[in-house]
Amino acid sequence: MAGALETSTHGLELTQGAPESGELAGLIHETARAHQFLGDSELALTLCRQALQMARQVADRKVEADTLITLGIIPSLSTEEAISALEQAIEIGHREKLLTEESRAHNNLGVVVGRNLADVRQARPHYLQAAEIARQIGDLSAELYCYNNVIFVTTLSGDLAEAERMLASGREIYAQLMDPGAAGENYRAEVNHLEHAKGHLDHAAAGRRDLLRQAAEAGSDFDVAGHGPSLGLILIELREYDQAVVVLDEALVSADRAKWLRHFVRSLMATALAGRGQPEQAKVWLAQAEAVLAERPEAWPQLIHHWSRANVQAAGGHWEEAFRTYEEAAEGFAEKGLRPDHARTLSDWAAAHLARGEAGDTDRARQLLGEALAVYHGMGADGYVDRVQGRLAELGD
User: Fold this and answer.
1) pTM score, whole prediction
2) Cβ(35)–Cβ(27) under 8 Å?
């Protein structure tokens, strides 16, 4: 992507003073797209608006659709604006028979619906449609890229058997690609995501470290901002809080530059510090996370925020507040069909009762762990099943 940025920027320099045209609008858009994926979202937004205006003036529908597609995933855009941009791109792509653009617009709309509304059920059909259109036009790389996102939301929903089946199908597409590129990298991330969702935490941590190292070597703030908190969450679950803090601190720089997952990194940092027994420092990070969330309220970050806040409250000994917040988070995850997050929250809630250690807390912890175990059993998350059964065995009858 850095090479694409250099090429498009050089092209813009050569066309300074040129009249408006579809070609120039397209070049401006490609520059915007490169800036977006390298983390400069504000410049990407400015260039996208410039390209969109020019494309409409010269009636270049392909460049108009392409620009709307990129515009829809720029983090600083409101949810309503993003959805509107992507729906317009889908309509243009379908009407003008621009199948590549229609596929990409469906994919990006799935991203926005999943991230901003925490609605994996609504996101999944858009990802599937994107992959199907890519298959119809014979674009294997695009098909795998979109198919990875279907796998992502399938894993988020806890349908791990289906995710595993889909990974096997994705592997067949992957094997046909001479240069898997970004689609291949995302496929490897989904293999790792499934390992995490199954509860194979040590293996998942090792794999995510490799992905994070590769992203850092490639200079992609966007990917570092994605892999860093994913690794941080695994380390928190392994109770390796010191390592989690180091990883999250490094990811924070990329997240802020890319304006991507800024809230997630801060919420996880608060939880890691809470686990390390530093509730006052954790509150500082939680406040930062809340400030980021206030800039652009979104459903999935809000759920994560409840979970993190409960962990910080428990670390500070504010037990009743923590229990109420755990309950709110657990209900929110369950309502959205996010079973891995639901079960994790139940397990943390149980741990808070055991940490308090008052009369009735052990029984309540057993009940919550039993609920978490049922969720993990339903998912087929064998690693988590073993972990929860081990905790229940330690508690005895």
Assistant:
1) 0.87
2) no
